[in-house]
């Protein structure tokens, strides 16, 4: 028995593989659910209803999917160029920090320009935070996995310092949080009396634009070439270092936008627990999507639905909500297996 590369992947297999991987993950996770004393069919029914079964559930799922789309895009763009950005969590916080620095009324600009300035500032902050690790990788060969991961903790300490210092809300009674965003700097609601905001539209637009950039521009071709074969790209005269710098800036900017959406659209102010791990979950989202920008949308909604639905299911039948982490982790493994069987066939 051996694996042979497929000359051409059938379109039906490309569609069926991720669906089959998700179903296999649910089947595997049925075993621990049963051991926990839950009726498996009832548990999955409650999870489905809790994620998309009502207006509230659907808007909660889409609200949580918005930052996952952006952090998933950040990981997908970087990974396609073999730039291993593990720091989307820190870049998200830098984007959020820039958003509250600009959007709490400290900058004297007309109201109509304030929200675009906040979005641009958050994206720029995330991009610049990723510039350092990318430059170290390109110029000195420093492993970006280590630098981006460690910078996540540096950002959290820096955010804590700012929230207990210059950016602390004087009305918070000493609680470490920023002043609230002014109305002109907030993203509007998409559905009245829900937490779903315009950040979802920004995330969807970012996915489409990222796909167009990768598939239809010279930079996108260079990105794919450097990621597929760096030596061949260098031999063809492509500026590998410049491409990697651009990739790092784009990846960081996308993660920074996720932070802007959380403070300007959802919470309204910055705290140290702003993100429940969206930057790390974005890596899972990108992997489930096989690094495809448009597939990131579906992957992010799936992951968000699992987390939202698991919370609802755990309250209803008394099963730990950590089953969501198990489902997502199992789906990641089954998706990796599906990707392998998509690219290779088993032959004797």
Describe the fold and architecture:
- The chain has 348 residues and is mainly α.
- Helix content is 72%, strand content 2%.
- The chain has 13 helices and 2 strands.
- A two-stranded antiparallel ribbon has the order 1-2.
- Helix 3 runs antiparallel to helix 10 and helix 3 crosses helix 12 (293-317).
- The chain is globular and about 70 Å long.
- The N and C termini lie close together (4 Å).
- The model has no long low-confidence stretch (mean pLDDT 90).
TL;DR?
This protein has 348 residues and is mainly alpha-helical. The protein is 72% helix and 2% strand. A two-stranded antiparallel ribbon has the order 1-2.
Q: Uncertain regions: pLDDT < 50 for 5+ in a row?
A: none
Number of strands: 2
Taking strands numbered 1, 2, ... along the chain, how are they ordered across the largest sheet? Answer: 1-2
Residues in β-strands, percent: under 5%
What is the radius of gyration computed over CA atoms, rounded to a whole number of angstroms? 21 Å
Separate helix tally? 13
N-end to C-end Cα span: 4 Å
> Helix proportion of residues, in percent?
over 70%
The 3D shape can be described as globular
For the report, how would you describe the main beta sheet? 2 strands, antiparallel
Helix/sheet category = mainly alpha
- The arrangement of helices and strands along the chain is EHHHHHHHHHHHHHE
Q: How would you state the average pLDDT, rounded? A: 90
